[in-house]
Design goal:
The longest helix has 14 residues. The chain is 28% helix and 0% strand. Helix 1 packs across helix 2.
């Protein structure tokens, strides 16, 4: 059995709502119903706060909704401390 720890939200209430209900409501407004479905092998999405880039990310997620992937790689920056190498 894998020992999994759930990380506490580090910036809840700053870059997104701290209330799960408010967060779910906000995300619901960002995922648009329109958009042509695409067969994507990769997506590059913005990583700013939802109020800045949520509409763009939501549209991309809607376009690939229903697809399954064997592997998902998230590459991001460290917001809390400097690192010299890549963090994947």
């Amino acid at each position: 059995m894998v020992n999994q720890k759930i990380r506490a939200p580090a910036v809840a209430g700053q870059f997104y709502p701290s209330s799960p209900q408010a967060l779910e409501k906000q995300i619901g407004t960002l995922i648009v119903e329109k958009g042509k479905k695409i067969n994507a092998i990769a997506c590059i999405l913005p990583h700013a706060g939802y109020i800045y880039s949520g509409v763009v990310a939501g549209k991309a997620y809607k376009q690939v909704e229903g697809q399954t992937y064997d592997c998902v790689v998230i590459v991001g920056l460290s917001h809390g401390f400097p690192i010299r190498k890549a963090s994947v």
